């Protein structure tokens, strides 16, 4: 038996199985069966056996808990035509919910990797755990970090005389930052105690 629930888990702290990483590292390769080992910073490892054939696509995971107990899990794969009209996009089929997804999570001491919505307890995005008064600040700082990351990359603003998608996205982020900056200083997001102090000063 796994350990009992002890608090909320988050997508950032849960172990993740990402299809993008498996494809990039060659763990999934069309027409082949591949064996690999994944680890998360020295924690117990997961041994993966992948089968990626035209009529048979799945993963077999073997994992050992910290108490020495082992478990295995089979994860089916499915494909859909790419919206670009070339090739296919691969998806996990969650063993518990049957939903298609590109990331599976191991959370709440589960013996297996599942879709984010397949756990008995909610698996939170970090922004969902932020209190109401901090939401505007949180959104502002995330948008600001995204803008700073964009500014560290190449800065071609036009292509064939038209703004690039990066330029349009940057302009949208700048507009959002201005709106969020105004919002986080609005009365709705100022703590009530501070509101009372401000009223006394006025």
What does this structure look like?
- By secondary structure, this protein is α+β, with helices and mostly antiparallel strands.
- The chain has helices spanning 19-24, 132-151, 165-184, 192-201, and strands at residues 9-10, 15-18, 32-38, 46-53, 56-64, 70-81, 88-93, 100-101, 103-106, 123-124, 158-159, 162-163.
- The chain has a six-stranded antiparallel β-sheet with strand order 3-4-5-6-7-8, with no helix packed on it.
- Mean pLDDT is 78; it is low at 1-6.
Which descriptor suits the 3D outline?
extended
Which parts are unreliable, with pLDDT below 50 for 5 consecutive residues or more? 1-6
**Strand adjacency order, main sheet:** 3-4-5-6-7-8
Our estimate of the beta-strand percent is 25-35%
Helical coverage, percent range: 25-40%
Order of helices and strands: EEHEEEEEEEEHEEHH
How many helices in DSSP terms?
A: 4
Give average pLDDT, whole number.
78
Q: What summary fits the major beta sheet?
A: 6 strands, antiparallel
The gyration radius over C-alpha positions equals 23 Å
Structural class assignment: alpha+beta
Q: Number of DSSP strands?
A: 12
| Distance, first to last CA | 61 Å
Comma- or semicolon-separated keywords:
alpha+beta, 6-stranded antiparallel β-sheet, 202 residues
Secondary structure topology:
Elements: E1 9-10, E2 15-18, H1 19-24, E3 32-38, E4 46-53, E5 56-64, E6 70-81, E7 88-93, E8 100-101, E9 103-106, E10 123-124, H2 132-151, E11 158-159, E12 162-163, H3 165-184, H4 192-201
